[in-house]
Amino acid sequence: MPINIPDRLPAAQVLTTENIFVMGHERASSQNIRPLKVLLLNLMPKKIETEIQIMRMLSNTPLQVDVDLLRIDNRPSKNTPEEHLNAFYRTFEEVEQQNYDGMIITGAPLGLVEWNDVVFWQRMKTIIDWANKHVTSTMYLCWAAHAALYTLYGIDRKIRQEKYSGVYPHQVLYRNHPLMRGFDDVFWVPHSRYAEINADEVEEKTNLQILAASPQTGVHLVASPDGRQLFITGHPEYDPETLHNEYVRDSAAGLNPAVPENYYRDNDPSKEPLVRWRSHGNLLFSNWLNYFVYQTTPYDLQQLKPVALAAKLS
C-alpha cells in the first residue's frame, strides 16, 4: 500500500526517487476505493489445486480482491469434476463484455506441443487480444507467458531437449522497478518447462524490460513499460509439494525424470523439499496488485483504454 505523508516533507522526494509509492494528502483525501476485479483463466489440468495456489497469493494483501474464474472452453476435464467447473467457472462469452482490473493466465502442460496443434489455440489468441482492451494489467505464467510473447510480439520460444525442473536462483536486473520492490538481489523460483525465451530477441524487437533472469534458466520476468503486461516464465505460485508430485508422476509413468534441481534437502528425493521461494512469490503478487493494478486502474472500468504494444519503432 502507498504511504500517505505531507506533500512537501523531504522524505517524500527521497522515497519517490527510490520508486516507493508516496501518496500526497490531496490525493489521499480525494481517492475513490472499491474492490479490485481480477479474472483468473485457469489452464492447468488440476484446476482446484491451481486455484488454491493463486488465491493464496492474491490474499496476501490488504486490498479486497473479487475473483472470477474462467475456463478456456467447455471440453470435459479429466482432473476436475464437471460440477465444480459448472458451479464456479464462467465461459468467455459470459465475461467478454466486461472490464477487469487484473487478469492472471496460468501455465499449461503444453510445452512440447506446436502452437497450432493446441486445441484451444485460436481461443487463446482471442483472449490475449481481448485482455489488452479489457484488463488494466495481465499476468501471464509459464506457458501462457510464452504464448503471449509469441502472439503479441512474434517472439517464439526455443524448445529444449531437457526440461528445466527445480528451483533456481535469479538475479534482479532493475533494482528500482516497482515490481522488484523489496526483492533480494538473488531470489529463488520454481521452474517446470521445456521452453525458453531468447533475451536478445526481447531487447531487439520490443521495448519490454527484462526485470529478472537466471544464469541457468534464462529470462524469467518481463514487463511492459506501463506494467500492463507481465510475463513470468516460472511458477512463483507453486506449493512445496508441486514439483515433488510432478516428479513422482513422471517416474511412475516410466519417463525417468531428472531429480528436480536445488529442491530436495541434500538433493535427496527421499527428503522433504526445501522451500525458499515462498516469500518472493508472495511479494511479486503483492507488488503487481499494488503498483500495476490498484494504483493504475481507473475507478470506472468503462474508462479503461487499450494497451499500446511495446514494439520497437523501426
TrEMBL record:
One GO term of the biological process aspect: L-methionine biosynthetic process from homoserine via O-succinyl-L-homoserine and cystathionine
UniProt main location, coarse: cytoplasm
Gene Ontology cellular component terms for the protein in this record: cytoplasm
Record-marked site positions (Important for substrate specificity): 192
Binding site for substrate: 163, 192, 249
Top-tier EC class: transferase
Protein function: Transfers a succinyl group from succinyl-CoA to L-homoserine, forming succinyl-L-homoserine.
UniProt protein name: Homoserine O-succinyltransferase
Organism: Neiella marina
